[in-house]
Amino acid sequence: MPKETKKAVAMRILVTGGAGFIGSHFLRLLLKRDNATLIVNLDALRYSGNLDNLRDVASHPRYRFVHGDICDAKTVEALIKAHRIDTIANFAAETHVDRSILEPAGFVRTDVIGTAVLLEAARTAGVRRFLQVSTDEVYGDVSTGRSKESDPVAPRSPYAASKAAADLLVQSYFTTYGAQVLITRGSNTFGPNQYPEKFIPLFVTNALEDQALPLYGDGLQQRDWIHVEDHCTGIATVLERGTPGEIYNIGGGCERRNKEVAQAILNILGKPGALIRHVTDRLGHDRRYALNCEKVRTLGWQPQANFEDALKSTVLWYQDNPRWWGKIKSGEFREYYERLYGARLST
Length: 347
Hints:
Blueprint: E1 11-16, H1 21-32, E2 36-43, E3 63-67, H2 73-82, E4 87-90, H3 97-102, H4 104-125, E5 129-135, H5 158-177, E6 181-186, E7 188-190, H6 199-208, E8 213-216, E9 222-227, H7 228-241, E10 247-250, E11 254-257, H8 258-269, E12 276-279, H9 294-297, H10 307-320, H11 322-329, H12 332-346
Parallel strand pairs: 1-2, 1-4, 2-3, 4-5, 5-6, 6-10, 7-9, 8-12
Antiparallel strand pairs: 9-11
């Protein structure tokens, strides 16, 4: 990849995993702005990829969808060439810790090998800028303080390890080839259109159906929450203004215990606290994540959402859109849910 010029230019950007949760919101953000002349979405449409997330922008003149796998080098190379891509934002990943515990190999394939394929295709094609979307989970459990970008990675789940490996690959392309790469590490993200295996949408949709909310262990695990729109504006800020070779933490600064979030969801819906069921804890469950986000704030970004207000609007979105999540929870999801929680909820 050649060195970046100082003058800002309109992007022809490839967004991988754009039919997923954060990726679809990022695509919408780009389409609202005028700094991208073409936005290509490459998504394999596995279980959490959902074109319904982008139905409202599917016919936009600056948007193209390509059904394909980031691990398929020929597809990636041809796409970059055909659309004259100069920027890549890699959202494509297997992301759920519980699934990584059940089936770790798929996470290595998509998160590590897929990232390697994208990096090499970008390098050989002369792509101007490459942004890797990562996670705070690569830092591992943080008992005190907040993780800084300079802290060593210490992943404790197959998911976190696969993302940490991808981050190291991205950094190696900066050191070895001078590639203009950036990494963002986001905290727990929530909002509309999130696949209901994740904590907040699972608990909201279960509560709406008067089903048990399976809370791991004592429920005192602590997370830093960020609304998806704030996360996306943070990623966009790094893509536009970040220094190549650098890592940027993007967190909401809203630390909450899982038990508190579960109770808040029930309060919004007017459901009884008895729906919360403490179940056997996740293997290797990290107790706390927390991010120091001073670095990204120097680029002019800060989160805008108030957690309580954003949580309420998210809960009400799921309440108002049962067809969206109902279709998902009636398919492959049921088998997964029974495999993960069946024995836990029966004891």
